[in-house]
Write a structure and sequence with these properties.
Layout: E1 3-4, E2 24-28, H1 35-43, E3 49-53, E4 56-60, H2 62-68, H3 70-77, E5 88-89, H4 95-107, E6 109-113, H5 117-126, H6 130-142, H7 149-158, H8 162-174, H9 187-195, H10 204-218, H11 222-229, H12 239-246, H13 255-264, H14 266-270, E7 284-288, E8 302-306, E9 311-315, E10 326-330, E11 333-341, E12 346-355, E13 360-363, E14 375-379, E15 382-386, E16 398-402, E17 407-411, E18 422-426, E19 429-436, E20 442-450, E21 455-459, E22 470-474, E23 477-481, E24 495-499, E25 504-508, E26 519-523, E27 526-530, E28 533-534, E29 537-538, E30 542-546, E31 551-555, E32 566-570
Amino acid sequence: MAARKRARTSSTGGSSSSRTVAPTITLDGGEACPTKQVALWRSGRLTDTVVTVEGATFSAHRLVLAAASDYFERHYDHEHMRDADHPKLLEHVTAAAFEPLLAFLYEGRCTFEESLLAPVLRAANYLNVAPLERAAVLALTERLSPSNALTAWTWGEELELPQLTTVAKETALRGFDEVEKIEEATLAQMQELVADDRLTAKSEEAVFSAVARFAEAKQPAEVELLGLLRNVRFPLMSKDFLLGTVRTWQLLDTKAGQALLFEMVAPYVSGLVQQPRHGLRERFLYVMGGSSSDQSERFSSVEIYDVQMGTWAAGTPLPSPRQGAAAAVLGPKIYVMGSFVAETHTAGSSVDVFDPRTGMWAAGVPMMQKRDSAAAVTVDGKIFVIGGHDGDDTLSSVEAFDPETGAWAEVAPMATARCLAGVAVLDGKIYMVGGMDDNFQILDGVEVYDPQTNTWASAPPMSTRRVEHGVAVLDGKIYAVGGLGDHGASPLISAEVFDPQTNTWAGVAPMGAPRAAYTLNAMRGKLYAVGGVCAAAEELTVEAYDPQQNRWESVAPMAQARCRAAAAVCV
């Protein structure tokens, strides 16, 4: 045999049916020796060297070892080593890890228990077996999770493996709330995590709590602790948490600590708004229902875009197909309201409520008014559903759902009836942008609703009439994009933006393709245009607009072409 040691009992042997079989992993990517040479090694014939690891001895051929490992090449090529004792590996290599490594040198691949993946990586790194090191790094990255990210990050740093270091850090950033034993992170790692805008946590309070656990376990020097805390965004925390938890934390109960805290909460006191981390902002875009471009088929399917991963996945379908529905997020739940009822050619008033935490839909309180092609937003803890069409008339009415009372109530109507309009919330006010009135006229006008006074007022009109267009708020400005400008005309490609500071609209870069009857949503500093129709053709493409670059670029498409879908963005 290649290894002169006591053979281990096979995990599949024996008569006991209750024995647990350890999961195994196979790594490949090496260069296999000729079959005859492998057979000679396996039988222990004509070998010319022995490697000792933890007291176990492994027979091998010097040429094979030297050809596949820089470490062994240096060993056997050294003039003092050629006739010296056989090599003894005393550091960074275990017998359990060397056995599959040796198999990899001969056969180009090896299979071993998954629990040995880290020791095999260390052995490959120490012995300079580059193909095995690459395969092990890839296998580790595929198995990364918040529970092992810190450990893998440390391995990457110790073994000087930048790919592993980067992926492990990103895994810890994405799942910060789930990182186990955060107190075992190094100070440098904790600094990098908390300073990164991509850190994803349920709240900034959770970020501080993790930092506190780390600091209480590691007891860093005060200057190091204060440097770490400078990366925590205190103005994003609630007043109760700041006063009840942060201010009374024992490690901040120093002159320097209180001075830092006063400095960090100054924006909170002055009313300046600190931007949330990208990782704390909405991550998932739900696109729900819709129809084919000719409206011959309605959908109940749901697709979810993960902006962080850049991928789409199927979601829990709606209880029934919905076309022309409105959607809004209230708390952790998504509300989908109204729709076009194809069977009766009227509108619906029903409401479906989805809880992303459970993945379940439930029936909500129906609206007071049947509505198709309405607009919906959330302001001050209430959902406002505005305008739309009831099957006979275009509506100017508005109703609001209060979760505390569990009921809908009418509020002030718009001056102009609108359906297929765009809606946005800016500075606590609702902007209804464009759409089509009860005379089928396509509008450029804008109305603004103030929930505090329950009144509507006019705002500057767009430069272009638009219906079935996309409207969204990004960085304190309202964007209106695409849609139709005239009945029977092709969809628009143009885009314009309203700046409340100048109270004017201005053109920005057009989309890559014209589209109407689509959804436009803001996520993490970009606008995402999804689905719709393009010159009467179904449109699967998705485009993202970057205001910093003033350009659109394609991103991953949906699996289902759809228009007139409802969309909502969630954390």
